[in-house]
Structures are given as structure tokens and as C-alpha cells.
């Protein structure tokens, strides 16, 4: 196998696994936060504004780790420096 | 094996595993959020409007991680730059 | 092994595993939501209409991740671009 | 090994594993839903009609993911396009 | 190894694993449902008829996933199209 | 290795693993059901007849999945069609 | 390696693993049932006769799955048809 | 490697693993039963005779699965028919 | 494979896995902290300012471990000293 | 590798793993029993004699499974019939 | 593969895995501590100063284990004595 | 590789793993027993003498399984009969 | 591969894994202790001095196990006797 | 690879893994004991002397299993009889 095939093959695998594995943690964490928010609203309806605001800040923090993974996945597919080098080397 | 076969083979595997693994977390998280929403409605029926609205925002956030995986799967099947390169190289 | 065998073999494996793994999460999540819905109805019978409606929306959201997997499985079996390419290349 | 053997061998393995793995999640989920339904009936006998109806809708939703797996298994055994192609190629 | 040995070997392994893995989920689920039914009867003896009837419907649903696995196992042992093809090809 | 050795070797492994793995689920499930039955009798002694009867029906259902595995094990040891074919082919 | 060595080697491994794996489930299940029986006796001493009788029936059911494994182990060591065939073939 | 080495090597591994794995389940189960017995005695001191007797019967049942494993281990070390055959064949 | 391909291939894999695995822990931990914060606000609304402030400090600490992983990932993709050395050596 | 090396190598590995794996279950079980005994003494100080006696009988039963493993380990190191045979065969 | 490639390749893998695995424990532990701190503040608002101070000392202790991992990662990337030796040896 | 290297290599691995794996169970069990002892003392200070005495007997029993592992480790490092034989054979 | 590469490669892997795996247990244990300390302060503010002091002694004990791992990691990187020997042998 | 490299390589791996794996159990166990001690002090401040003393004895017992692992690690690095033999043999 030549270098282009190897780098391409590995990039495909890694891109998929990165977002697949990386979405498990954030999804479960968001599910937990949302579930607790609903429970808190049911328990203390008068504070629903504070609860909702805190929830959204928290969800944004949690979502950030999922977005790290998505960014790395997109870099590996569309702006992969190793692939660019291999293409340039193969075409040189 | 030539380069086209390798990239194709790997793309098929990765596409399937990405959506399969990536659907576990969001599904479980949505199940937890929905279950808690039902419990909250039963506990505080008067707040069902607020609870339902918060639930839908939360489900949208959680679903987003599943959609990241689905997008990557579709890119790997139908707009795979590595595959396009391999086809072009093989046909060149 | 020639290219057609490889792509075919991998497609069969991936199709099966995708739907098998991808059905675990949604099934468990739906089981949890349904169980909680039954508990909520028993606790607050007067809200059974609201509970049932919220349950069905939630089940639809959860089922969507299972359907993502089913769609990818069907694409891999019946509309697989990599397989089509391999067949065309082998027949060319 | 020739192409027919490979595709056949892989189809057998995949067919078995798909239904075996795919039955774990739905079975556990249905067990949970049924158990909760029985608990709900014991707690609120007057709502047994509503509970039973909701249970059956939920079981149908959960069973659907098991049926996805069963359908894929049957396709892989009796209507496998990759196998048909291999047979045709070997017999051609 | 010739094609007949391979298909036979794989069919034996798959048949055994399918029913072995496939019996874990239904068995645990039935155990949970039965345990809850006994608890419900002890809690609400007057509803034992309703509870028992719902239990049996639920057990039938759960058993169905075990039966899917058993059917696939039997097909793989006694009506395996891949094995029939291999025998025919070897004897031809 | 000749075909007879392979089929024999695989049959031995599969027979053992099928009953070994297949006995875990039913045993745990029966343990749970029996434990809950004892708890229910202690809680509601007057219903011990109903509880015992429901328990035995449930145990029969759970034991059925263990028996599926035992049947497949016995078939693989004493009525294995793949082994019969290999013996016939080797002796022919 | 000749056929006799292979069948013998595999039979030894399988015999050991079958009883080793197969004793985990029944042991844990019996432990659970016995523990619950003791708890039930402490809670309702007057029903100790009924509890003990139900316990013994349940233990017999659970032990049956361990005995399935033990029987298969003994068959594999002392009445193994595959080994008998290999010995006969090697001595023929 | 000759046949004697293989059978001997495998027998050593299997003997060790059988008793090692096979002691986990019974040990945990006995620990649970003993713990519950102590709790029951503390709760109902007047029934300590009944509790102790039931405990010992239960421990004997659980210990039986450990003894199955020990018996198989001893057979594999000191009365192994496959080893006897290999020795006889090598010395013949 | 030459040195450039190896280093590139390994860097791609490691970059993806580092952020994927490294996002699981922080995401779950943030989900837990946010959920508890919402619960605390519902329980003690008057302290929401203190709770929110403590929450944000804690989230920053937890996020720091995710950022360690992201920094290492970015170093491996865009400022990898091993890759720079390999490129220089290959171009020398 | 000659037969003596193989048997020796395998005996070393198996001896270590047998006692290592075999000590997990008994240790955890004894920890549970001791912990419950302390709890029972704190709850019912007047029965400390009965509790202690039952505890020691139970610990002896649990320890017996650890001793089975220790005995097998010692046999494998100091009275290993397979090793004795290999030494005799090599020295003969 | 020459020595420089091997050391470089291994250093990349190890650097990534060290920080990835090493961030799981501290993140979860900090999440637990923060969550409990919020709960404690809600329960005893008057002690929020003591609680916050103890929390920060504890977080510093926990963060130290993550920092150990980060230090090792940085050493492996930027001050790796094995890599320095390999470069010197290759350039010598 | 010669026999001395093999036996030495295996002895090193086994010695380390035996004590590493073998210390997990006893450590956790002792932690549980100590924790429960502290709880019992807090609950029933007057019985602290009985509790402490029972705790120490229990800890000695649990520690014994760790000591089995330590003894086997020391035997494998400093009094290994297989190593002694290999040295003698190599030096003979 | 020569001896220097092997020892170096293995030392890098082991150094990273030792601190990575070795930081999981202490981090989780410290998180648990800190969380419980905060809970104890909230419950008994008057004893915060005793609690804090006991906490710090406990954290020091737990941190010691992490430091064992860190020490071994540093020895493997900067004072590795096997590496020193390999360098000396290669340079001799 | 010569004997010195093998023994050295294995010793490095084993030394690291032994202390890494061996620190998980004691760390978690100490965390549990410390946490319970803090809880006990909060519950019964008057007994803090007894609790603290019992805690320290227990921590010493638990730490002993970690020290077993540390001792074995140090022996493997600095007083390894197999390495000494290999060095002597290589230098002889």
C-alpha cells in the first residue's frame, strides 16, 4: 500500500470513531442535566427562569466537548495536513 | 488490494459503526429526559407547558450529537474526499 | 480476494452490525420512557392525555436514532455506491 | 477461498449475530415496561385499561427495533444481493 | 480448507452463539417481569387476574425475541441455503 | 487439517460454550423470580397458593430458554448434520 | 498436529470452561434466593415451612442449569463421540 | 510440538482456569448468603436456629457448584483420559 | 512503509482518539455538576448566586482537563515535532 | 521450543493466574460478610456470640474456595504430573 | 523501520493516550466533589465559606493527578530522552 | 529464544501480574470492612471493643488471600523450580 | 530492531500507561473523600476542624499511591537501569 | 532479539503495570474508608478518637497491599534475579 492509501484509510476510520465515541459522553451528560432541570422545575416552579438559564449555560459547556470532537473530525476530513502532504508528495 | 478497494472497504465499515455507536448515547439520554419529563408532569401538572418546552429544547440539544454522527456518516458514503481522490487516481 | 468480494463481504458485516448495535440504545431508552409513562399514569390518572402525548413525541425522537441506523443499513445493502463502483469496475 | 465461500461464510455469521445482539436490547426493554405496568396496575387498579393500552403501544414501538434486526437477518439469508451476485458471477 | 468445510464450520459456531447470546436478554427480562408480577400480587391480591393476564401477554412478547433467535438457529442447522449451495457445488 | 477434524473441533467448542453461556441468563432470572416469590410470601402469606402457581409458570417460561440452548447442544453433539456429512464424505 | 491431538486438546479446554462459566450464574442465583429466604424467615417466622419448601423447589430449578453444564462436561470427557471417532480413525 | 506436549500444556491451563473462574461465583454467592443470615439473626434473634439451618443447606447447594469445578480440575490433573491416551500412544 | 507515512498515520489516529476519549470524563462530570446545581437551586433558591458562582469555578476546573486533551490534539496535528523531523529527514 | 520449556512456561503462568483470579471472589465475599457482621453487632449487641459464630462458619466456607485455588497452585508448582513426565522424558 | 521512526511513533501514541486516559479519573472526581459542594451549600448556606475553601483544596489535590499525566505527556513530546538519543544516534 | 529466556520472561510477567491482580480484591474488601466498622462504632459506641476485635479477625482472614498471592509471587521470583531446572539444564 | 530501540520503545509506553492508569484510582478516591468531607461539614459544622484534619491525612495516604506510580514513571524515563545497560552495551 | 533485551523489556513493562494496576484497589478502598470515617465523625463527634484510631489501623492494612506491589516493582527494577542472570550469561 502506498502512503496516500494509508493516510486516507486511517483518516476515514479516525474521523468516524472520533465523533462516534465523542458523542457518547456529552449526550449522556446533557440527558442528565435536562432530566434534573425538569425535576427542579416541577419541584420549584417559581425559579424556572433561574433554572432554565443555568441549564442553558451548562448545556453550552457540555456541548463544547462534543464540538471539540466535531471540529477535529472536520479537520481530519477536509483540512488534514498529513493528507495534503501525502497528496503533494505523491503528485510531486 | 488496490487503493480503491481499501478506501471503499474502510468507508463502509466506518460509516456503519459511526452511526451505530453514535446513536447509543443520544438514545439513552433522550430516554432519560423523556422519562423525567413524564415524572415531572405527573408531579406538577400545572407546569406542563414549561416542562414540555424545556424538554423539547433539551431533546434538540441531545439530538444534535446524533446528527453530528449522521452527517459524518452521510459525508463518508456520498461525499467522501478520500474516495473521490482514489477514484480519480485510479481512473487517471 | 478481488475487490468485489471484499466490498461485498464488508458490506454484509457492516449492515448487520449497524442495525444490531444501533437497536440497543433506542430499545432500552424506549423501555425506560414507557415504564415511566405507566408509572406517571398510575400516579396522576387525570393527566393521562398530556402524559401519553408527551410520551409519543419522545418515542418518535428516540425512534429517530434507530431509523438513522436502519436507513444506513438499507443504503449499505441496496444502494451502496462503493459496491456499485466495484461491480462497474469488475464488469468494465 | 473463492468469492462464493467468503460471501456465504460472512452472511451466516452476520445473520446470526444480528438477531442475537439485536434481541438483547428489546427483550430487556420489554421486560422493564411489562414489570412497570404490573406495578402500576397494582398501584392504580382503576386505570388498568389506560395502562394496558399504553403498554401495548409501547411494546409495539420497542418490538419494532427487534423486527428491524429480524428483517435484516432474513434479507441476509434469503434475499442477499451480494450472494446473488457471487452465485451469478461464479456460474457465469 | 474447501468451501464445504468452511460453511459447515461457520454454521455450527453461529448456530450455537446465536441461541446462547440470544437467550440472555429474554431470560433476564422474563425474570424481571415475573418477579414484579409476584410483588404486585402480594401488594394487590384482588387484581391477580388482571396482573396474571397482563404478565402472560408480556411474557409472550418477550419470548418472541428468543424465538426469533431459535428460528434462525434452526434455519442455520437444518435449512441453510449457503450449505445447500456448497453441497450442491461440491457434488456437482 | 482435514474437514472431519475441523467440524469435530468446532462442534465440541460450540456445544460447550452454548450451554455455558446459555445457562447464565436463565439461572440469574430464576434466582430473581424465586427470591421475589419468597419475599411476596413473607409479605402476603394468604396468597401463597397464587404466588406459587404464578412462580412455577414463570419458571417454566424462563427455563424454556435454557432448554433451547440444551437442545442445540445435544443436536450439535449427537445429531450434527454437518458432522454426518463430513463423516460420509471422508468415508466415501 | 494430527486429528487426535486437536480433538483432545479442544475437548479439555471446552470441558473446563463449560463447567467454570456455567457455575457462575447458578451460584449467584442460588446465593440470591437463599439470602432472600433468610430475610423472609426473619420477617415472617410463622411461614418458614412454606418459604423453605418454595426455596428448595426454586434451588432445584436453578441447580438444573448447572447440572446441564456438568452433564455436557462429563460427556465431553468420558463419552465424547468426536474423540471416539478420531481414536477409531487413527487406530484403523 | 508433539501430541504429549500439547495435551499436557492445555490440561495445565484448563485446570487452573477452571478452579479460578469457578470459585468466583460460589464465593460471592456464599458471601451474600452469610451476610444476609447475619442480618436476619440481628433482626429476629429468636429464629436463629431456623436461619442457621436454612443457611447451611443453602451453602451446601452453592458449594456444590464450586465442587463440580474442583472435581473437573482434579480429573484433568490426575485422571485425564486424553493425557493417558497421548502417553500410551507416545510410549507405544 | 516509509517513516513519513508511519508518523503521519499514527498522528492522525492519536489525535482523534485523544480528544474522543478525553471528552467522555469531562462531559459526564460537567453533566453531574450542572444537574446537582439545578437541584440545589430548586432546594435553596436564596443561595442561587453562591451556587452559580461555585458551579462556574468547578466547571472551569473540569473543563481544564478537556482542554489539556484538546491542546495535545492540536499539537499533534499542527505542531508535531516528530512529524516535522520526519518531513525534514525525508526532504534532506 | 522443546517440551520441557513449554510445560514449565505454562505452569508458571497458570499458577500465578489461578491464585490471582481465585483470590478476588473470596476476598470480596469475606469483606461483605465481615461488614455485615459488624453492622449486625451494632444493631443487636446481645447476639454478638451467635453472630460471631455464624460469621466464622461462613468465613470458613468462603475461604475454602480460595484454598481450592491455592492447592491447585501448589500442585502446579511443586507436584505437577505433566512437568514430572516432561522431565523424565527429556532425561530418559 | 528504523529506530527513529519507532521511537517517534510510540511517543506520539503514548503522549495522546496518557493525557486521554489520565483525564477521565480527575474529571469524574472533580465533578463529584463540585456536585457535593453545591449540595452542601444548599443544605448549610451559613458554612459556604468553609465548604468552598475545603472544595478548592480538594480540587487542587485531584487536579494534581491530572497534572502528573500532563507533565509526562509534555515530557514525551518536547523533552523525550529516548527520542533525543535516537536522533543523536541517527545523526552520528 | 532459548529455554532460560522463556522461563525467565514468563516468571517476571507472572510475578508482577499475580500480586497486582491479587491485591485488588483484598484491598476493596478491607476497605469495605473498615468503612462498615467505622459506621458501626458511630452507631453503637459502647460495643467498640467487640466491633474492633471482630474487625481485626476479619481483616486477617481477608489479608490471607493477599498473602497467598504474595507468597506465590515470592516463590516465582526467588524459589522458582522451573527456573532452577532451566538454569541447571543450560549449565549442564 | 536492535536492543536500544526495543528498550526505549517499551519504556516510553510503560511510562505513559503507568501514570495514566495509576491516576484513575487515586483521583476517584480523593473525589469521594472530598465529597464526603463537604457533606460532613454541612451536617456537623462544629466539627469542621476535626473533619478537615482527618480529610488531609486521608488524602495524603491516597495520594501516596499516585506518587508511587509517578516515581516509577520518572525512574523509567530518567533513571532506567535497563536503558543505561542497553546504551552502554551499544556504545561498548 | 537476544536474551538480555527480552528480559529487560519484559521487566520494564511488568514493573509499570504492577504498580499501576496494584494502586487502583488500595486507592479506592482508602477513599471509601476515609469517606466513611468523615461521615462517622459527623454523626458521632464524641467518638472521633476511636474512629480515627480504627481508621489508621485499617488504612495501614489496606496500604500494605499497595506496598506489596511497590516492593515487587522495586525488586523487578533494581534487584531482578532474572536480569542479573541474563547480564552474567551475556557477559560470561
Automatic annotation (TrEMBL), chains A, B, C, D, E, F, G, H, I, J, K, L, M, N:
Q: How does it sit in the membrane?
A: Multi-pass membrane protein
Q: Name one GO molecular function term.
A: lipid binding
For this protein, the record's InterPro entries field holds: Alt_ATP_synth_F0_Csu (IPR017708), ATP_synth_F0_csu (IPR000454), ATPase_proteolipid_c-like_dom (IPR002379), F/V-ATP_Csub_sf (IPR035921)
Q: Name one GO cellular component term.
A: proton-transporting ATP synthase complex
Site (Reversibly protonated during proton transport) at 63
Task: Give the record's keywords alphabetically.
Answer: ATP synthesis, Cell membrane, CF(0), Hydrogen ion transport, Ion transport, Lipid-binding, Membrane, Transmembrane, Transmembrane helix, Transport
Q: List, alphabetically, the SUPFAM superfamilies matched.
A: F1F0 ATP synthase subunit C
Q: Which residues cross the membrane?
A: 55-79
Q: Any idea where the V-ATPase proteolipid subunit C-like domain is?
A: 13-76
Subcellular localization(s) per the UniProt record: Cell membrane; Membrane
Regarding protein family, the annotation reads: Belongs to the ATPase C chain family.
Q: What does this protein do?
A: F(1)F(0) ATP synthase produces ATP from ADP in the presence of a proton or sodium gradient. F-type ATPases consist of two structural domains, F(1) containing the extramembraneous catalytic core and F(0) containing the membrane proton channel, linked together by a central stalk and a peripheral stalk. During catalysis, ATP synthesis in the catalytic domain of F(1) is coupled via a rotary mechanism of the central stalk subunits to proton translocation.
Which protein are we looking at? Answer: ATP synthase subunit c
- Source organism of the structure: Marinobacter salinus
Q: Tell me the lineage of the source organism.
A: Bacteria, Pseudomonadati, Pseudomonadota, Gammaproteobacteria, Pseudomonadales
Corresponding gene?
A: atpE
